[in-house]
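Hi support team,

I've been running sequence recovery on a batch of backbones for a student project. Most finish fine, but this one hangs at about 90% for roughly twenty minutes before it completes. I'm not sure whether the input is malformed or the queue is just slow. I've pasted the structure tokens below so you can try to reproduce it. Let me know if you need the job ID as well.

Thanks,
M.K.
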């Protein structure tokens, strides 16, 4: 792993003019391609995951400098448990290592870190580290970085519906009060704006059970670039395409 900091300052390639007029508040990313990147280079797959972390470091530096308010990344899906025990354990160890190395820098740079997903199902030591990181950074007012960990959107929606049903049964909510805003408030992302754009690296043309509710009107941007090779310049290219699109929200 390189020694680059998750939040070290670097100039935004968007430029000062664009930085003042960043056309979106929230970008979500499906970070796909770590394993294919390693396979193509005939390297162990853990190397691909490690290089994927470095790509995230560079991107967090970049979007923080550009003034983005929310960045949500898909780190570990609820389906990823199907991978080998060794790979899953390596990923959890990597998450713990990155948190230990980067938490002080996150605080210095006012990054607020939130983990979304079924966190109570992950190993206890990692769970405690996640809780500590969220507690320590909760008052920060810079970039809001959400990491989807043991996350699945259908499960998220199902859990929200169950909680709403309990509230109705207890009399705290009337069925007539249930609308899209209420449902949104029960999701893991409650209180956050929906992403205006979802970027998927690696070329696959699907959402993979990621932010299905929140992505209702998001612009989709798919690139063949594998995640370890994804650079700030690739992000800028996605933003430029976003600006050129006409967002109709169901209109003609």
């Amino acid at each position: 792993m390189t020694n680059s900091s998750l939040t070290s300052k670097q100039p935004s390639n968007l430029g000062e003019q664009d930085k003042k007029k960043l056309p979106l508040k929230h970008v979500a990313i499906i970070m796909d391609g770590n394993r294919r990147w390693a396979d193509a280079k005939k390297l162990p797959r853990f190397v691909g995951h490690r290089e994927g972390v470095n790509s995230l470091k560079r991107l967090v530096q970049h979007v923080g400098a550009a003034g983005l308010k929310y960045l949500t990344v898909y780190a570990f899906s609820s389906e990823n448990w199907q991978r080998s025990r060794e790979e899953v354990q390596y990923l959890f160890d990597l998450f713990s290592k990155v948190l230990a190395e980067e938490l002080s820098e996150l605080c210095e740079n006012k990054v607020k870190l939130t983990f979304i997903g079924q966190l109570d199902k992950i190993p206890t030591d990692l769970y405690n580290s996640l809780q500590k990181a969220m507690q320590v950074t909760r008052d920060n007012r810079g970039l809001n970085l959400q990491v989807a960990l043991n996350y699945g959107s259908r499960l998220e929606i199902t859990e929200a519906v169950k909680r709403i049903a309990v509230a109705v049964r207890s009399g705290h909510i009337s069925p007539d009060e249930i609308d899209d805003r209420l449902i949104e408030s029960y999701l893991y992302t409650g209180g956050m704006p929906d992403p205006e754009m979802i970027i998927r690296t690696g070329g696959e043309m699907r959402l993979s059970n990621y932010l299905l509710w929140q992505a209702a009107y998001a612009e989709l941007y798919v690139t063949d670039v594998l995640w370890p090779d994804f650079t700030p310049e690739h992000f800028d290219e996605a933003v430029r395409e976003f600006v050129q699109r006409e967002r109709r929200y169901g209109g003609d």
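--
Follow-up from support: It reproduced on our side and the slowdown came from queue contention, not your input. The first strand starts at residue 26 and ends at 30. No action needed from you.
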